[in-house]
Amino acid sequence: MNQMAGKQSVRFREPVRIISHACTGGSKEGEGPLGKNIDLIVEDPLFGQDNWEESESQFIRSACEIALKKAGRKKEDVRMAFSGDLLGQLIASSFGIKQLNIPYYGVYGACSSAGVTLSMAAMAVNGGFADLALAACSSHFASAEKEFRFPLGYGNQRPYSATWTVTGAGAFLLGNAAGQPGQGGVVIRGITTGKIKDYGVQDPFNMGACMAPAAADTIYQSLEDFQMKVSDFDHIVTGDLGAVGQKLLFSLLGENGMDITANHMDCGMQIYDEEQQDTHAGGSGCACSAVVLSGMILPKLFSGEWNRVLFVPTGALLSQVSSNEGRTIPSIAHGVWLEHV
Question: Does the domain formed by 186-340 have CATH 3.40.47.40?
Answer without folding.
Answer: yes
